[in-house]
UniProtKB/TrEMBL annotation:
Keywords annotated in UniProt: Acyltransferase, Amino-acid biosynthesis, Branched-chain amino acid biosynthesis, Cytoplasm, Leucine biosynthesis, Manganese, Metal-binding, Transferase
SMART domains associated with the record: LeuA_dimer
Organism classification: Bacteria, Bacillati, Bacillota, Bacilli, Bacillales
Binding site for Mn(2+): 13, 201, 203, 237
Organism field: Alkalicoccus luteus
Pathway field: Amino-acid biosynthesis; L-leucine biosynthesis; L-leucine from 3-methyl-2-oxobutanoate: step 1/4
GO molecular function, one term: acetyl-CoA C-acetyltransferase activity
Protein name: 2-isopropylmalate synthase
Record's subunit section: Homodimer.
Database matches in Gene3D superfamilies: 1.10.238.260, 3.30.160.270, Aldolase class I
PANTHER family named among the record's database cross-references: 2-ISOPROPYLMALATE SYNTHASE 1, CHLOROPLASTIC-RELATED, HOMOCITRATE SYNTHASE-RELATED
Length: 515
């Protein structure tokens, strides 16, 4: 059985999804979960793109020990140097360097001739190999490149030391037959191709990212790149959970397997969805809420008689379990710690105490605390990053009736200990609250997206809100959860504003806490 390496780029290409903006601790949480999932390589970011990305990549490389951590770089010396600084202390550092090879990209974007692109690619791969033991080289827009040119440049970058050759379908343009034949062509026409692993990287613009990735595997790709939940630039990347399950279920047809621990899929998907604010559609393959639900009578009858009549994947295979009642009001710290262990968390004593306090608060109002609730509490505690909050919710009140104008009063606490209070109305309760907050916030804030969902089921389910705002023209996202939908919305709004505030130059000068 051939082993296909999984290269996860949730933290790099996934973060290129419009509106997604993960901070350092959120990235670290996802990285730890990707390690549990068992990916072979994780692309933690693009270190030269910003100081924040540099720090995230460095922290992930220094923390993750069982997965190779990589970072992206253009074919530019300073990008490679910056990536080395971020990755050098990692357990298995590798670089991912790319340059475009299609006529349209070379002519209009890079403004280079094909010969200059070959020269640059070779020079930068050799330069990278002076530091990195493993170097992946990507031919950006490979699927719109000339095949013989591609074969020529691949041969030269392998000679220069590239250990992985990635052939991305950057704009999601290719089809399975065409993409598969490109891999076959390289295997047949690049004399030194066996010295490198061939890799697929597909985008979903025409809905073919997964099919194209599988076609690449059929034609000799030893690595597939993608993201959890298929998030990524534009229509997204190939969804890794779909690939891993497809290969597992169709072992009869494809003699290939990944090293993923499939039972970790659901939790990874939930974490990525929660932290990015990109909700998984109900009908999404493998991880959607409906993926294992049978609605019609004939299907239900079949499943009752023999599950496999309509079920090719079991929920258990991907870690979907029914929400167990975990603990309640009278549970103590020992039982709580034990539960965290069962759920796979390894938290510092300080974080356990913080989570336990939140858990206890919840048990005052919620009878059944489920694994989903705990997951929400633990994720919030683990990714809480802003030490200095410019605006902290102290109290709010909404007066609301179906035939009157909703009015909100909000009291916020400021870091200097003083309070501010305002009142405003709106067309609905949420709008009244947001209008009130608008009046109290000094920065120029506009809401660009607002989402509200429930965690788990039942009338006392936790509410989770995701809000995107622009603060002085730049977009930030925030999250908030609470048993009350309005409180979740207010918390998410303030979280986004505080994150935006942290990035404003004045805040840095005042020494606001770590982001
Ligand atoms: C297909 C992909 O997903 S590629 C990865 C996309 N990810 C990102 O772009 C990450 C976020 N990007 C950034 O933060 C910025 O674009 C930076 C820091 C990388 C560069 O910023 P700037 O220096 O301001 O350049 P800007 O983004 O405007 O333009 C890109 C430049 O890089 C060049 N370039 C693009 N790709 C490559 C490459 N692979 N190798 C070398 N040069 C490249 C472009 O031709 C352009 O050069 P020019 O300034 O001489 O015209
Ligand atoms: C940087 C490269 C690999 C990429 O993301 C793409 O071409 O889609
Ligand atoms: Mg991509």
């Amino acid at each position: 059985m051939a082993r296909v390496n999984i290269f996860d780029t949730t933290l790099r290409d996934g973060e290129q999804s419009p509106g997604v903006n993960l901070n350092r601790l959120e990235k670290l949480e996802i990285a730890k979960q990707l390690e549990r999932l068992g990916v072979d390589v994780m692309e933690a970011g693009f270190p030269a793109s910003s100081q924040g990305d540099f720090e995230s990549v460095r922290e992930i490389a220094n923390t993750i020990r069982n997965v190779s951590v990589t970072g992206l770089a253009r074919a530019v010396k300073s990008d490679i140097d910056t990536a080395w600084e971020a990755l050098k202390d990692g357990a298995d550092p590798r670089l991912h360097v790319f340059i475009a090879t299609s006529p349209i990209h070379m002519t209009y974007k890079l403004k280079k001739t094909p010969e200059e692109v070959i020269e640059k690619a070779v020079e930068m791969v050799s330069y990278a190999r002076e530091r990195f033991p493993k170097v992946e080289w990507s031919a950006e827009d490979a699927s719109r490149s000339d095949l013989s040119f591609l074969a020529e440049i691949i041969e030269k970058v392998i000679d220069a030391g590239a250990t992985v050759i990635n052939l991305p379908d950057t704009v999601g343009y290719t089809t399975p037959a065409e993409y598969g034949s490109m891999f076959r062509y390289m295997r047949e026409n690049v004399p030194n191709i066996d010295k490198a692993i061939l890799s697929a990287h597909c985008h979903d613009d025409l809905g073919m990212a997964l099919a194209n990735s599988i076609a690449a595997v059929e034609n000799g790709a030893g690595q597939v790149e993608g993201t959890i939940n298929g998030i990524g630039e534009r229509a997204g990347n190939a969804a890794l959970e779909e690939l891993a399950v497809a290969l597992k279920i169709r072992q009869d047809f494809y003699p290939a397997e990944t090293g993923l621990t499939l039972k970790e899929i659901k939790r990874t998907s939930d974490l990525v969805s929660k932290l990015t604010g990109m909700h998984v559609p109900r009908n999404k393959a493998v991880v959607g809420q409906n993926a294992f639900a049978h609605e019609s009578g004939i299907h239900q009858d079949g499943v009752l008689k023999h599950a496999q009549t309509y079920e090719i994947i079991t929920p258990e295979m991907v870690g979907v379990t029914s929400n167990s009642l975990v603990m309640g009001k009278h549970s103590g710290k020992h039982a709580f710690k034990d539960k965290l262990k069962q759920l796979g968390y390894d938290l510092s004593d300080e974080k356990v105490l913080e989570a336990f306090t939140e858990f206890k608060k919840l048990t005052d109002t919620k009878k059944e605390v489920t694994d989903d609730d705990l997951f929400t509490i633990l994720t919030d505690v683990q990714t809480k990053t802003i030490d200095v909050k410019k605006y902290e919710l102290n109290h709010f009140q909404v007066s609301y009736s179906d035939d009157g104008i909703p009015t909100a009063t909000v009291k916020l606490a400021k870091p200097d200990g003083s309070d501010i209070e305002h009142k405003a109305d709106g067309q609905g309760a949420v709008e009244a609250l947001f209008n009130t907050l608008d009046q109290m916030i000094e920065e120029d804030v506009h809401i660009t997206d607002f989402q509200l969902s429930s965690v788990g089921s039942g009338r006392d389910a936790l509410a989770q809100s995701n809000v995107k705002v622009t603060v002085n023209g730049t977009e930030y996202s925030g999250r908030g959860s609470s048993q009350d939908v309005l409180e979740a919305a207010v918390k998410a709004f303030l979280n986004a504003v505080n994150r935006g505030f942290y990035h404003q130059p004045a805040a840095k000068a005042q020494g606001a806490g770590a982001h």
